[in-house]
Fold Class II glutamine amidotransferase.
Amino acid sequence: MCQLLGMNCNVPTDIVFSFEGFRRRGGETDEHADGWGIAFFEDGGCRVFLDYLPSSISPVADLVKNYPIQSRNVIAHIRKATQGAVSLANTHPFQRELWGRYWLFAHNGNLAERPSLDDGRFTPVGSTDSEHAFCALLNQLSRHFGEPPSLADLHGAVADYAGTLSRSGTFNFLLSDGRALFAHCSTDLFYVVRESPFSTAHLSDADVSIDFARVTTPRDRVAVIATRPLTDNEDWTRMRSGELLCFVDGMPRPSPI
């Protein structure tokens, strides 16, 4: 299956270090070679980079690696195709607009049954179960809420949807509208929170280290979420099956206030 990477911070931060390890899993240190993508929220807008080439050899990934884009919410994905051809249309993360905000979604898993779209305004462009599930979720949210819901209400609605859909397959996903980052674990999802006092981290997929104390301020806080831990010298927390966390300002919240 695919792999996920997310970042949520209390101040705009670049994801260059984590991405350097993550991209190598796209065909170099792992088998996820059927395309990749990454998206950054910036001041109400989004920068989205997609490529159907493996991330380990993609020139677009080289650009992202060398371009320290700063964001408070980032979603990335490397794909091992199970449903749908290898193409840009089937590459995560997927992006849509709802209530005047961009929404991003990436999925790791395989759904045996696709939820009904109920003639809603959101329809897939590609042929993946992932994009179909994303469109179905947005159709449900737009019908259920007449205006943008609070994070607490959104958390409840997404949790109900995830619980229902998980019965038809594996449904690990990352979702964000730029206010927070939602992470749902069906099988495998880990996170680490980096905050003062910062230490040195070493990547699992490359002999690369960084001393965060030298590149951060004492008030910075960063949460990184991944299908598998990206470093081999940090204490990553494994999420429980069925758990949905809302990451706000670099902290995981079981249910936001």
Notes: The radius of gyration is 17 Å. The helical segments are 16-24, 59-65, 129-144, 151-165. The longest strand covers residues 3-13.
